[in-house]
């Protein structure tokens, strides 16, 4: 009898051990699945009025992210940005991130381009606009975008924070394209210099994310004001018959007290001239693309139109200024 009792107790202890091991395995598997499911992923596009979609900019101002672009990403209530890089069409984070939980709603913030100098969400360095050269191909090097996305894990697609739609990245600067066109096809017009002036249009700034969207914005750096940006062409550029010549200016969004001034120096058939206008306006809104076309006639430099798109479109009346021969 004693032997039978001992055997029963041994079997019972063994059964308990087996059940305990099974429960432990199931719990570990459950935790593993939970961790895998809560991985944070990212999707991003640039807002445009007529497209879902950056750093590659076309002549119409449309932009989209390109391979190896990197952005800075702030987890909720975190101050240090995490770098994400676009690799083979997928955004890859520098370090793995997971959701804090699968129930609550969180606020995520991000900016482009990523900067090693950015150590806090309240002071993110923005590109130095004074270093632009006016070419379309480099607009992406100086552009700055910001985005917010408020969502919960349950609202996402497999944990993907989606900076798309109304949460897409938006341009913080204004973009101006100024096209010079000649009046007569047989003229030989060479452009040697162009200058755009306006109070602190090209000064250095930092960007900050506040507690809410309406607290986000730019802060101008003291002592870095820059009112004018000049493009000097060592080899004068030709104003062609059909396309003319276009230069691009990224500038700080502004509501100026005085109008901007645009001026050029050029040669027509070997004779040097200068021309300028102060009628390009004094309001430049963030995320808007302003396209001006100026026609070079022997009597005046005419502004033949202005198109403002969602980088709204509006037409301005023709404007003219006097052409001044250089003595």
Would you spell out the secondary-structure blueprint of this structure?
Layout (H helix, E strand, L loop, with lengths): L1 H36 L3 E4 L11 E2 L5 E2 L5 E5 L7 E6 L2 E4 L11 E8 L11 E2 L13 H4 L2 E8 L7 E4 L6 E2 L2 E9 L6 E9 L7 E4 L8 E4 L7 E11 L6 E7 L2 E2 L5 E8 L2 E7 L5 E2 L4 E8 L3 E10 L9 E7 L2
Broad shape: elongated
Order of helices and strands: HEEEEEEEEHEEEEEEEEEEEEEEEE
Query: How confident overall, as mean pLDDT?
Result: 82
The quaternary state of the protein chains shown equals: single chain
Distance between the termini: 126 Å
Secondary-structure-based class equals mainly beta
Number of helices: 2
Poorly predicted runs of 5 or more residues? 2-10, 12-35, 49-55, 312-321
Indicate the percent of residues in helices: 10-25%
Query: Approximately how much beta-strand content do the residues carry?
Result: 35-45%
Topology, number of strands: 24
Main β-sheet description: 9 strands, mixed
* Alpha-carbon Rg, integer: 29 Å
The strand line-up of the biggest sheet is 16-13-19-20-24-23-22-12-17
Question: How does this model look, in words?
Answer:
This protein is mainly beta and 327 residues long. The chain has helices at residues 2-37, 139-142; strands spanning 41-44, 56-57, 63-64, 70-74, 82-87, 90-93, 105-112, 124-125, 145-152, 160-163, 170-171, 174-182, 189-197, 205-208, 217-220, 228-238, 245-251, 254-255, 261-268, 271-277, 283-284, 289-296, 300-309, 319-325. The chain has a nine-stranded mixed β-sheet with strand order 16-13-19-20-24-23-22-12-17, with no helix packed on it. The radius of gyration is 29 Å and the shape is elongated. The longest helix is centred in the first third of the chain and has 36 residues, at 2-37.
């Amino acid at each position: 009898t004693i032997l039978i009792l001992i055997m029963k107790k041994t079997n019972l202890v063994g059964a308990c051990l087996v059940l305990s091991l099974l429960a432990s395995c199931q719990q570990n598997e459950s935790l593993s699945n939970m961790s895998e499911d809560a991985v944070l992923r990212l999707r991003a596009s640039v807002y445009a009025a007529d497209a879902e979609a950056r750093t590659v900019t076309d002549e119409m101002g449309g932009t989209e992210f390109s391979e190896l672009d990197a952005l800075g990403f702030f987890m909720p209530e975190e101050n240090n940005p995490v770098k994400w890089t676009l690799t083979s069409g997928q955004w890859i984070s520098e370090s793995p991130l997971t959701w804090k939980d699968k129930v609550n709603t969180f606020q995520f913030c991000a900016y482009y381009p990523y900067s090693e100098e950015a150590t806090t969400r309240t002071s993110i360095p923005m590109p130095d606009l004074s270093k632009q050269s006016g070419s379309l191909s480099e607009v992406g090097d100086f552009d700055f975008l910001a985005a917010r996305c408020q969502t919960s894990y349950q609202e996402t697609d497999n944990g993907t924070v989606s900076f798309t739609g109304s949460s897409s990245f938006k341009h913080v600067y204004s973009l101006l394209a100024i096209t010079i066109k000649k009046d007569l096809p047989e003229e030989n017009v060479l452009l040697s210099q162009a200058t755009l002036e306006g109070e602190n249009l090209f000064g250095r700034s930092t960007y900050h994310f506040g507690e809410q969207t309406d607290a986000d914005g730019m802060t101008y750096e003291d002592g870095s004001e820059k009112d004018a940006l000049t493009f000097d062409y060592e080899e004068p550029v030709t104003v062609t018959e059909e396309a003319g010549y276009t230069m691009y200016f990224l500038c700080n969004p502004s509501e100026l007290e005085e109008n901007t001034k645009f001026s050029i120096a050029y040669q027509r058939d070997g004779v040097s001239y200068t021309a300028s206008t102060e009628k390009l306006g004094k309001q430049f809104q963030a995320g808007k693309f302003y396209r001006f076309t100026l026609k070079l006639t022997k009597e005046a430099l005419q502004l033949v139109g202005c198109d403002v798109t969602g980088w709204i479109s509006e037409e301005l009346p023709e404007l003219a200024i006097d052409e001044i021969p250089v003595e």
